[in-house]
Amino acid sequence: MVHWSAEEKQLIASVWGKVNVEECGAEALARLLIVYPWTQRFFDNFGNLSSPTAIIGNPKVRAHGKKVLTSFGEAIKNLENLKVTYSKLSELHCDKLHVDPENFRLLGDILIIVLAAHFTKDFTPACQATWQKLVGVVAHALAHKYH
Amino acid sequence: MLTAEDKKLIQQVWGKLGGSEEDIGAETLWRMFNAYPPTKTYFPHFDLSQCSDQIRGHGKKVVAALGTAIKNLDNLSQALSELSNLHAYNLRVDPPRFSLQLLSQCLQVALAVRLGKEYTPEVHSAVDKFMSAVAAVLAEKYR
């Protein structure tokens, strides 16, 4: 069981409270597909992913990014119970989507860079440390049901 | 592989730092020690408190090395050869392909914090590729 201090919970809540889930999700997913182009392998039916501009403007990317980050919000609401919360999602990613869990780590790191660019100075080292821990724990929970 | 466009973007980004390289170096290391405590195991001889002279000094060294790399993007292997030897035979930091990811992440956060929207997906991609290339060179002689 992962322990979260009061300070960590505060740092998570204060950042999350100011995040526009739709914009941030879209940006994070777009950057994943741009910075790590091999991740496009999971999105064959998304249409035009031929350039950064195409990816950023792609409506399916935006919609899926929003979905992913909305789910991340669920994780934040259930920090004490993540493995259970993500149990079905983990099975889905393994059995149906066949996603290598390494990709969860990549997306987590990208999300952090998006937050840093958005919040600039307010994304303090303490903030980053807490959020790196959070994305790590979320990635771990998502990988938990893999077999 | 670093494209011509990547190289241009990297040089541009570095140009925008105008003199704050030392601050960025110190901040990068401080973020890394906070976010990834095991990285501190390589610095038992350091004062690891915030803004310590040693962190500033080492941050400056790291950023200077990256600056050298950026001036020699067409010839990274040769430009970083000494540093590659140092990491392989002396420092023996957990092979750079793993550890440099942590340094790279924290450097990119430090850059994103300073550049905000200017840290575009294209710039992000170029810097990430650059740091991977540096890590590969530093790991070349490990075994």
UniProtKB/TrEMBL annotation, chain A:
Q: Which domain of life is it from?
A: Eukaryota
Q: Which GO terms describe its molecular function?
A: haptoglobin binding; heme binding; metal ion binding; organic acid binding; oxygen binding; oxygen carrier activity; peroxidase activity
Q: Which UniProt keywords apply?
A: Heme, Iron, Metal-binding, Oxygen transport, Transport
Any one biological process term the GO annotation gives: hydrogen peroxide catabolic process
Quote the InterPro entries the UniProt record gives: Globin (IPR000971), Globin-like_sf (IPR009050), Globin/Proto (IPR012292), Hemoglobin_b (IPR002337), Hemoglobin_oxygen_transport (IPR050056)
Q: Which residues form the Globin domain?
A: 3-147
Q: What's in the GO CC field?
A: blood microparticle; haptoglobin-hemoglobin complex; hemoglobin complex
Q: Name one Pfam family in it.
A: Globin
What job does the chain carry out? Answer: Involved in oxygen transport from the lung to the various peripheral tissues.
Q: Which family does it belong to?
A: Belongs to the globin family.
Instruction: Please describe the quaternary structure of this protein.
Output: Heterotetramer of two alpha chains and two beta chains.
| Record protein name field | Hemoglobin subunit beta
Automatic annotation (TrEMBL), chain B:
Q: What is the lineage of its organism?
A: Eukaryota, Metazoa, Chordata, Craniata, Vertebrata
Q: Which GO terms describe its molecular function?
A: haptoglobin binding; heme binding; iron ion binding; organic acid binding; oxygen binding; oxygen carrier activity; peroxidase activity
Q: How does it assemble?
A: Heterotetramer of two alpha-D chains and two beta chains.
Q: Which family does it belong to?
A: Belongs to the globin family.
- Gene3D superfamilies, per the entry: Globins
Q: Where is the Globin domain?
A: 1-143
| Job of this protein | Involved in oxygen transport from the lung to the various peripheral tissues.
Q: Please identify the protein, giving its name as recorded.
A: HBAD protein
Gene responsible for this protein: Hbad
- SUPFAM superfamilies, sorted: Globin-like
Keywords in alphabetical order, please.
Heme, Iron, Metal-binding, Oxygen transport, Transport
What CDD domains does this protein map onto? Answer: Hb-alpha-like (cd08927)
Q: Which GO terms of the cellular component aspect does the record hold? A: blood microparticle; haptoglobin-hemoglobin complex; hemoglobin complex
Mention one GO biological process in which this protein takes part, according to its record: hydrogen peroxide catabolic process
Source domain of life is: Eukaryota
